[in-house]
Structure formats: structure tokens, C-alpha cells
Amino acid sequence: MTALARLPVGVRLAVLARSLLVQAAWNYRTMMGTGMAFALVPVLRHVHGEARAFDDAVARHATLFNAHPYLASFAIGALARLEAEGADGDTIERLRAALRGPLGAMGDRLVWAAWLPMCALLGILVSAAVAPAAGVALFLVVYNLGQIALRAWGFEIGWSAGTELGRRLRELRLTRETRRIEAAVCLLAGAVSGTLLTSVAAVSSSTLPALAGIVALLAGYAVGPRAWRPTAWIVTLGVGAIALAGRLLPL
Amino acid sequence: MTDVLLLTLVGGVVAVDGVAAVQSMLSRPLVVGWAVGMVVGAPMLGAQVGILLEIYLLVAIPSGGGRHPEGGTAAVVAVVAAAAVAPSPSALAVGVAGGLGWGWLAAMSQSALRHWNERRADTPEHHLDASEVARAQAAGLGLDFVRGAGLTLVGVLAARWIGPALVPGWPVGRGETYALMALGALTSLGVLLRGVAGTRGRAVLFGVGLTAGALLLGGSA
């Protein structure tokens, strides 16, 4: 924590602000490498000044890197710490390589598969029960409180852990927190499913559409992620086919 | 014309928010659907299209370099398409289907932009300095905005032109159209559950939610 206190607040805030653009130049060669270098520039300038070492450090961080965009802040903090401690290039590269996979996988599960669905389903339910504006506002506020807190916390953890970030990540038990959010997703997905099924039954004169809805829900569950692309295509092409049939056939 | 300009700007902003900057989720269909509904004078229809698209796209995880439908620009086009044919019973279907289709086009354009960004990326022969990094970032952001705005402009004009052509022969009633769109959304919810459910405790939670949703909110969708 002594080292953390030596990094000026202005530099830390600049790094956090720049980390919001970590995917701005995302590409298939270095992925978010350019964005990582961009986020780290304030720290590198603080540590190295405008010397040759600064250019070397920028170049080092602009190479291949990828992670979840929010959890990249863990890596940014740890890499900033290593630069501040004057670690050699090989040590820094080893840490970058070690963090690439885990931070991506953890973030995908925590944010894209749990936090985002939880917040969105909550927003949908409030939209239906209260008003769309209330649902949208709640979704944006809750989601962004989480993402900003995660980014700021990630940088602090990364900075304090340095090369020990892998061990710290295991101690944080993010998987346990992810499971709790997933449980909330189950509850909220159930509520949205119940709402949809009863509304389908309400607008139809028979129970057939509601039964078809239950089958659709079960089919999605049974097939899993492979089902959503075909579903989207069937809906898109199906609507086109219905419109075409309505124009061409005397229905 | 003013609303087309506004929608074009919205398209640019949500395209950037989707991946390149912040990812505050202003670009989610839930948000865009409601906002664009307000712009085109159809707030409830916009919210409905946005909610359905949100459920469809919740399972399209934007991880790594994978190509996934872009929800933001798609939702702008979807709501404009739906509003263009309202009050026809086809409005919801035209909106959702148009949005899903446009989302794929947007994904392809995003992929092309990522290839273009490679030109300004680090190579073994040329390492970037700080000013080149800043220029690459600015170029990536600017081009993403232009991509989103351009895509949205074309989509909005196409939706207003093609949408009404689909209406006259639409052979399905409003209730059945809604049911068809809901079937796709329920499939997506099933896919989502596959990733998070699996234990008895979570099945119970899902059941509790299902019952509560059916009893408390059934008439409000």
C-alpha cells in the first residue's frame, strides 16, 4: 500500500478514465493492446518521464493483449505497479501473457453472462410493471454502478498485488459472487418468462400459443447457446415469409 | 428530416458505446428502443420492440473477437421500422425482425472496422510510440462513430421505405403476431437459463420467479 500512496491521485484518475477506451482501437492483430498502452501512458510518463524508457514501455504494452474490458483494469493496475517498481521487460511480458486468458473468461462469466442479464431482466420487469422510463433508468444506474466500481476496484487490486495478481484473483472468490448473481438471473428470468407466457395466453383465443411458449423455453434450455442464432434467423426470415405470403397468396 | 439527423447521431453514439468506449449499455436495445420510440412519437411501441430485442440479444455475448449482432444501431432501425408500419398488426414483427437482420449487417461492418484498425496496430517491424497510440485510438473511435451513424442513416431510410410495403398483405392478427415474437424471446430465455441454471436450488428460484411473474405481471406485457 506504500507504493499505491506514491501514485498521485491525478495519475490514477487519468488511467481509470483512459481505461474506458481500452477497446477503442480493437483489432484482430493486437486486440486491445493499443488500448492497454493508451490507458497506461499516464503511469508510464509518471515513472519514466519522457526518456527513451518511456517509448520502450509504451511499445511493450501496445503488443497483443486481450481481456474482458472491465476486468482489464486488474491487469492495468498490476502492470502499472511493475513499471513503477522498475521490473524488467521479460517479467512484464510474462505477467501480460499469464493474465490474458483468465481475465477474459472470468469477465465473460461475471459480466456478460450474469451481471448484464440480471440488470437487464430487472429493467424489463420494472418497465412492464411501472413504466419503461423507470425500467431503463434503473437498468442504467444499477449496471453502471457495478461496472464503474468493478473497474476502480480492479485497478486498486491490481496495483496492490502486482505480480501476485493471479493469487489475489483466486482469493477474491469472484466465482462465488458470480454464482450469487446467476441465482438472481434464474429468479428474474423466471419472472420474465411467466410474464411473457401469461401475456401470450391473454392475447390469444386458445391455450396453444402459451403451450408453444413453454415448448420454446424448454427447447432453448435443451439446445443451449447453439439455439439462439437459428432462432434469430427463423424469426427474421419467418417474418419476411409471412409478409411475402400475405402479398402473394389470397389468405 | 430533423429526426433522421437525430437518429443518425444516436446511431453513432450507441455504436461507439457498444464496444469502443465506456460500454455503459446506453447501446442496449432496452434503452435505445425506449429512447427512439420517444423520438419517433411511439414510446410504447419503441419500448416493446426494445424489450423483445433485448431478450433476443441477451444471449449474444460480445466476448473476444467473436462476431455478434450489434444491438444499438439495430434497435434504432427496428423501432423506426415498427413505427413506419404502425398501427398495423405487423409493427412488432417488422421491428423485431428488421432489428435482428440489421444487427447482423452491423456486426459485419464492425468486423471490417477491426480489420482496418490493424493498419494502426503494433507490428514486429514497427512499434508504436505514445502519439501513434493516441492517433490509433482517436481513429478507431471516430471511424466507429461514422460507421454507426452511416449504418443507422441507411437503415432508417430503408425502414421507412420498405416497412410500409410489407403492411398491406400481413395475414396475421395482432395477438398472434405478438405470440410469434414472444416464442423467439422465450427460446432465448431458455438459452440464457442453460448457462446459469442446473441445480435444484436454481430450478426452485426459476419456479418462484415464473409464478410471481405470471400472477403479478401477466397482464402488463
The total of beta strands of chain B comes to: 0
| Secondary structure tally, helices of chain A | 11
Largest sheet of chain A: none
Question: Main β-sheet of chain B, in a few words?
Answer: none
Structural class of chain A: mainly alpha
Query: Which stretches of chain B of 5+ consecutive residues score pLDDT under 50?
Result: none
Strand content of chain B: under 5%
Number of folding domains of chain A? 1
Task: Compute the CA-based radius of gyration of chain B.
Answer: 20 Å
Count of individual helical segments of chain B: 8
Q: What is the number of independent domains of chain B? A: 1
Strand content of chain A: under 5%
Determine the structural class of chain B based on helices, strands and strand pairing.
mainly alpha
pLDDT < 50 runs, ≥5 residues of chain A: none
Number of strands of chain A: 0
The two chains with the largest interface, and their residue counts, are: A-B, 107 and 110 residues
Order of helices and strands of chain B: HHHHHHHH
Distance between the termini of chain A: 74 Å
On the 0 to 100 scale, the average pLDDT of chain A is 92
Determine the oligomeric state from the structure: heterodimer
